């Protein structure tokens, strides 16, 4: 492709789409320009910042025709913080764009002509995140805590966030000055000096219980009592205060050692009427309201009568498995992270389920083995990571022909690719339902229902 623009060019473009990072996309003679802050249907004068072989970047100088869905971003640090990408698009506009995007991807990548329902959004799309992971650091000499800038590890010092809980705000605003006053130091990624790396605040929506985890570089933590007292004053509903030690030079938040500081070591939450124990490092969905919407949709598509055997592939801590277990004859879950399988087993026992079975391992190896051993499924549920299902798993599905496949996906592109493979092997995609798990970001979760054509 010849590149039709060069660095420092100024031109007028029409923005057609958004990338999965929420940047506007305009095409100049077919060459995509990514434009931060631009919205679909807008005409803008832009300045070209950089050109690569297949795409380039430009910034807005002036919006000539603005999108009817453009709004003033309510968060004062929206333009610096890397957390949200779409606050400048009205919530209705976000849902409309997400539906369109899923529809286009189904057509373009999946060659599928399938009904894509309007996105199930939130009635109140703010303060939905039940987990805040707040980094400490230094800006020059000044200790700070807040959020990372877009694609960077520079921290914007912040006291409030519109998508996290009031408890996380209270910790951010109240704990920070207290820690500095106590003489504790933030960890500096550049010099590798300092003690405090992150504070993680988790809240269980249904029980209001809160866990606060202080991640430190070393185990020795001075002023423990003062820290505990401050946290308990700031968040009276705290049930667990933990310390996690991470001495590594890494971007990974948690280290291997977790120590109790005060209270219990878990908090409890419910999804539907299933109870979950969450420990400092357990994986747990971050938008509990929409998780329930998503799982209800998966359950509706599975359409269980109580006689079915279900396989839940990529099951995490077994949340979908346990949500389905009451309506199924049995559920078998498989997940690659052994710790998550331990959580799944514990939570199954906690809820008194005797018809669930969990195994740690790659789905594409474990499920073929189950099938060989006669453990088959009427309904196969898959919820893979962004890269989609492993080919070997899709091959197994086509050989074993479960009546129904319910596919939960966080990436419409790999979903469409996998649905096409299953369609070519004798399945038909009946319906596609997007669910907005992450308002103000460009992410969307999708549930698709497939059945065998010959059934
Ligand atoms: N269904 C769960 C988690 C879905 S996230 C929930 O709703 O909470 C996708 C999961 O797939 C992650 O837990 C990840 O650890 C797991 N995973 C990734 N590759 C895998 C593989 N090859 N086999 C099994 N699980 C895998």
Automatic annotation (TrEMBL):
Record-listed E.C. numbers: 2.1.1.190
Keywords noted in UniProt: Methyltransferase, S-adenosyl-L-methionine, Transferase
GO molecular function, one term: methyltransferase activity
Gene3D superfamilies: 2.40.50.1070, Nucleic acid-binding proteins, Vaccinia Virus protein VP39
Record keyword Transferase present: yes
Highest taxon above the source species: Bacteria
A single GO BP: methylation
Active site, renumbered: 410 (nucleophile), 410
Cross-referenced SUPFAM superfamilies: Nucleic acid-binding proteins, S-adenosyl-L-methionine-dependent methyltransferases
Binding of S-adenosyl-L-methionine, residues: 285, 314, 335, 383
InterPro entries membership: MeTrfase_TrmA_AS, MeTrfase_TrmA_CS, NA-bd_OB-fold, SAM-dependent_MTases_sf, TRAM_dom, U5_MeTrfase_fam
Any Pfam family: TRAM
Chain ranges of the TRAM domain: 4-62
PANTHER family: RNA M5U METHYLTRANSFERASE, TRNA (URACIL(54)-C(5))-METHYLTRANSFERASE
Family: Belongs to the class I-like SAM-binding methyltransferase superfamily. RNA M5U methyltransferase family.
Protein name: 23S rRNA (Uracil(1939)-C(5))-methyltransferase RlmD
Organism encoding this protein: Kurthia gibsonii
Gene, per the UniProt record: rlmD
């Amino acid at each position: 492709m010849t590149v039709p623009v060069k660095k420092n060019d100024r031109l007028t473009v029409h923005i057609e789409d958004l990338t999965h990072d929420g940047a506007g996309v305009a095409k100049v003679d077919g060459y995509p320009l990514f434009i931060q802050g631009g919205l679909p249907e807008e005409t803008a004068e832009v300045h070209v910042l950089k050109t690569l072989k297949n795409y380039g970047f430009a910034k807005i100088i002036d919006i000539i025709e603005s999108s009817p869905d453009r709004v003033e971003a309510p968060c004062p640090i929206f333009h610096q913080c890397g957390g949200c990408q779409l606050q400048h698009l009205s919530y209705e506009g976000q849902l409309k764009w997400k539906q369109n995007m899923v529809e286009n991807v189904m057509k373009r990548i999946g060659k599928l002509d399938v009904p894509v329902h309007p996105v199930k959004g939130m009635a109140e799309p703010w303060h939905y995140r039940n987990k805040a992971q707040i980094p400490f650091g230094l800006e020059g000499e000044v200790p700070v805590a807040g959020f990372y800038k877009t694609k960077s590890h520079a921290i914007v010092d912040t006291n409030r966030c519109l998508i996290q809980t009031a408890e996380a705000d209270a910790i951010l605003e109240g704990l920070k000055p207290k820690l500095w006053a106590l003489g504790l130091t933030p960890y500096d990624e550049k010099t590798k000096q300092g003690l405090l790396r992150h504070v993680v605040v988790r809240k269980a929506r249904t029980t209001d219980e809160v866990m606060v985890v202080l991640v430190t570089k070393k185990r020795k933590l001075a002023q423990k009592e003062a820290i505990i007292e401050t946290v308990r004053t700031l968040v009276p509903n705290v049930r667990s205060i933990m310390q996690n030690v991470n001495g590594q030079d890494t971007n990974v938040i948690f280290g291997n050692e977790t120590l109790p500081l005060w209270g219990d070591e878990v908090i409890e939450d419910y999804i539907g009427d299933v109870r979950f124990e969450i420990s400092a490092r357990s994986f747990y969905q971050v938008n509990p309201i929409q998780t329930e919407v998503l799982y209800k949709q998966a359950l509706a598509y599975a359409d269980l009568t109580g006689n079915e055997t279900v396989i839940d592939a990529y099951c995490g801590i077994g949340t979908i498995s346990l949500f389905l277990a009451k309506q199924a004859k049995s559920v078998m879950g498989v997940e690659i992270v052994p710790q998550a399988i331990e959580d799944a087993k514990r939570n199954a026992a906690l809820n008194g389920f005797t018809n669930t079975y969990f195994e740690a391992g790659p789905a594409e190896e474990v499920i073929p083995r189950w099938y060989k051993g006669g453990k088959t499924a009427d309904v196969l549920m898959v919820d893979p990571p962004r890269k989609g299902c492993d080919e070997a798993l899709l091959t197994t599905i086509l050989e074993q022909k479960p009546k129904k496949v319910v596919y939960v996906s966080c990436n419409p592109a790999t979903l469409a690719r996998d649905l096409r493979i299953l369609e070519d092997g004798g399945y038909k995609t009946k319906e596609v339902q997007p669910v907005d798990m992450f308002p103000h970001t460009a992410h969307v979760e999708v549930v698709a229902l497939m059945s065998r054509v010959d059934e």
